[in-house]
Specification:
Shape: globular
Strand order of the largest sheet: 1-2-3
Order of helices and strands: HEHEEEE
Radius of gyration: 15 Å
Largest sheet: 3 strands, antiparallel
Number of strands: 5
Number of helices: 2
Structural class: alpha+beta
Length: 81
């Protein structure tokens, strides 16, 4: 792994910890019709909301082109609908 890759991983590890570590999930659900329309998406992903008001929405890519799945544990998946 190059120095640049290591630095990028360290940066995004810090950002993800700043956003998520120690937070509490207070709501979990699939996007509703209005949210789907606002996003321009055809796949309905799971979203969750943190105790500080931050919403987390699963996307198929980092450009937000459509909803994505959530993998958990060794073989669990919450699909898009």
């Amino acid at each position: 792994m190059s120095v640049d890759q290591k630095e990028m991983i360290e940066k995004w590890n810090k950002v993800s910890q700043d956003v998520l570590k120690g937070r509490t999930i207070v709501e979990v659900r699939y996007l509703n019709d209005k949210e789907m329309e606002m996003m321009g998406w055809y796949s309905r992903p799971v979203c969750f909301f943190l105790d500080n008001g931050v919403s987390c929405i699963l996307s198929s890519d980092d450009e937000g082109n459509d909803g994505g799945v959530l993998f958990y544990g060794s073989d669990g998946v919450l699909p898009t609908l």
